[in-house]
Amino acid sequence: MIPVTPQDHEKVNLGESEVLKLRADPEGVQENYIFAYLIVGREGRVLIETGPRKALPTLKESLREKGFKLSELDAVFVTHIHLDHAGALGEVVRECNCKAYVHPRGLPHLVDPSRLNEAAKNTLGDFVFNAYGEAFPLDPDKGVATEDGRTYEIKDLKIEVVFTPGHAPHHQVVIHEGVLFPGDLLGEVTVWTGAYTPTTPHRTIPPMIIDSIWKISDRQFVAAAYTHRGIVMGEDEVRNQMMGEVEQIRTWLNTIFVRRSKCREDIECYKKYLIEADPLFKKLVEEGELEKSKLLQNSIRMSIEGLMKYVQAVFT
């Protein structure tokens, strides 16, 4: 795995526009785990991600600190519909009275989030589900089903969408002027340490994630603004992390495959061997970063379980 040079940026200045990092952790669980991003042009204002529903007060406060408010938004894009990325979308759109751009396979589940909420309740666990809160329904008249490879013009801002399934079938990345908003495609990057881990929850298809990474790998990105956990600057840094994530997913898959007879369905057993196999995961553990974040702990639990179930399904 290729580490990222430790860094922690609050914004990306692009000349004619800038990207501002916004806090989007749920109230009561402030761990620098979830971020949204505001793209600010001469005229346009576009929000990328909303965070979970119970993060709405945090998101509003972070916007105010930057000198903005929800009513000024011209559009909202989400990378996928999981609660930590889009749980607050319905309420955000109600306040901004603007359009929400969502993958066509995910959009119906935000208009009627009953199945989404039920699935999240079953997979996230009580602590995280209660911390995030249920998704609020999106006004169907405000939802726009995105198209793969299309660039949307929001006033003076150009926002490109690329479909990148694997983490979920409704996953897409968003691109603006060389800044990549990868959602969960490239894992969770704890930028201040330079370490990262996969995001491979239930129903993940790892080869599809890798294919999606290859799909955008020939692009030149000046920065990546990760929903989890911050901004990485530099073309080489972003490319190295992309290639490192491919290697990391393969390493985790191979480790779980090799240890499946010994560990069976014991997540802690797999975790022990993954720490030995992955120096970046080991770094998070040894430096205490994993211990600091219950949300990251839960994500890693789900990622191990997701890969375990994939291996069981393919090789049983």
Describe this structure as you would to a colleague.
The protein is an alpha/beta fold and 316 residues long. The chain has one domain (11-315): 4-Layer Sandwich (Metallo-beta-lactamase, Chain A). It is 41% helix and 20% strand. It is built from 13 helices and 15 strands. It has a seven-stranded mixed sheet with strand order 1-2-3-4-5-6-7, covered by helices on one side. A six-stranded mixed sheet has the order 8-9-10-11-14-15, with helices on one face. A hairpin with a 2-residue loop joins strand 8 and strand 9 (157-163). Helix 7 (206-216) runs antiparallel to helix 8 (235-258), helix 8 (235-258) crosses helix 10 (267-277) and helix 8 (235-258) packs across helix 13. The longest helix has 24 residues, at 235-258. The protein starts with 10 loop residues before the first strand and ends with a helix. The relative contact order is 0.15. The model has no long low-confidence stretch (mean pLDDT 97).
Task: Give a topology summary.
Blueprint: E1 11-13, E2 18-23, E3 35-40, E4 45-48, H1 56-66, E5 75-77, H2 83-86, H3 89-96, E6 99-102, H4 107-111, H5 114-124, H6 126-132, E7 143-145, E8 151-154, E9 157-163, E10 172-176, E11 179-181, E12 188-190, E13 195-197, H7 206-216, E14 223-226, E15 230-233, H8 235-258, H9 260-263, H10 267-277, H11 279-286, H12 289-292, H13 294-315
Parallel strand pairs: 4-5, 5-6, 6-7, 11-14
Antiparallel strand pairs: 1-2, 2-3, 3-4, 8-9, 9-10, 10-11, 12-13, 14-15
Helix pairs in contact: 5-6, 7-8, 8-10, 8-13, 10-11
